[in-house]
User: Which sequence fits this backbone?
């Protein structure tokens, strides 16, 4: 009597094989590419916003007026808020782009995004949600292998997830 194996591979249809190959290909997207995109694109938005608030090294009077009249944040003087915003919108995007202190920079910009969403433009939640998604990826996983953080981690023999 012959004994056949009960572990016969199921026959998969062509559409199922196409989906499986597509998923396998998409699984191959390297994290460094995802992290680089999550760092650069929101950084550009914040940088451009910061540029509208300054003329050279000085804050424009229109920036303070914006915080007095349109943004109206509670508990903070409009002049202080305008200065802090302009500074943050220049420092943290640069740090994100080079991938230095990525998790902390992303956290700072996520907090700015929350303030903007809650107090300034609550109706813009789809846009803010996209920014927040990028920042959450970076906070959770770091800047990726194409970042200064990664170089520092390699120098001190730590895994990137420990940075």
Assistant:
């Amino acid at each position: 009597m012959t004994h056949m194996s009960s572990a016969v591979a199921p026959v998969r249809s062509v559409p199922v094989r196409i989906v499986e190959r597509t998923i396998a290909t998409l699984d191959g997207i390297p994290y460094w590419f995802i992290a680089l995109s999550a760092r650069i694109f929101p950084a550009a938005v914040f940088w451009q916003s910061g540029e509208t608030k300054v003329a050279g090294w000085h804050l424009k009077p229109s920036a303070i007026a914006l915080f007095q009249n349109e943004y109206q944040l509670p508990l903070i003087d409009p002049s202080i808020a305008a200065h802090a915003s302009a500074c943050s919108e220049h420092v943290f995007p640069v740090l994100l782009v080079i991938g230095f202190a990525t998790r902390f920079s992303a956290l700072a910009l996520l907090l700015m995004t929350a303030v903007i969403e809650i107090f300034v433009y609550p109706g813009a939640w789809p846009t803010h949600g996209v920014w927040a998604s990028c920042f959450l990826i970076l906070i959770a996983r770091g800047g990726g292998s194409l970042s200064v953080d990664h170089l520092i981690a390699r120098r001190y023999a730590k895994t990137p997830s420990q940075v």
Q: What stands out?
A: The longest strand covers residues 54-55. The chain has seven helices and two strands.
